[in-house]
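Example record

One chain of 273 residues, shown exactly as stored in the release files.
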Amino acid sequence: MESPAFIPSGGLSLSPSATRAHVCGGRRRATAAAGRVWMVNEIGQNDKEEVREYFTNDGFGRWNKIYSDDESINAVQKDIREGHAKTVETILSWVDEDGDAQGQTFCDAGCGVGSLAIPLASRGALVTASDISPTMVAEAQRRAVEELPASAASLATFQTSDLCDLNGFYDTVACVDVMIHYPQEDVNKMISSLSALAKRRLIVSFAPKTLAYSLLKKVGEFFPGPSKATRAYLHAESDVVAALEAEGWTVKRRGSTASKFYFSNVLEAVREA
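Predicted structure tokens for this chain:
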């Protein structure tokens, strides 16, 4: 489920509760990975179902169009497309700089239509990509088959799953343009869950909480309606960094994308030797 870092108009038509989507919905569960056991406080099933419904139906059409080559989109949607593409390009530039994608395992949590998963597979990475929306997953899989040679397409696996049902152990875990749907307390849980999947690198993006962006968000809230009422959470970078450090990560790289209707910070965190 990829969505913009923030849109003051023309955004998601979700209720406030619906934005608390797939951070471990339903019950309290113990999970173990790499010798660690942690408890996750899970959020109600109804919230998760609302988000799944949106991105599987009405929302899918909107975001699939934005994250495509369709030229019929409006100026706001084009700005979002370009902003999201820059965030993905930043992550790929880090992967290319390290020169170690070939044969490495990647988990793309909240993959949307495959904007990151597909180019990673094209670089020879073994990619496990997931999204809460089965429609998004189907589209990502279709694009992978269409855009990649058969040998590369076979390296990417797509599955429908919420974040707290993911398992496995990966060299790198990425969660791009997802955290905007959650308050900080849920982001902390999300980072904890994702950390248990990652061997050496965790990459996350979020909409930064600054005075200017907070004011812009307030302006957007003056335009109610099913197509314009964006529910979005901004996050202070210091809070996200603190959550990463609590899980034993050290921030290695930082990136930022800012345009008229899209803004996002991205952090690459690594485990110190």
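Notes: Confidence is low (pLDDT under 50) at residues 6-22, 25-46, 219-230.
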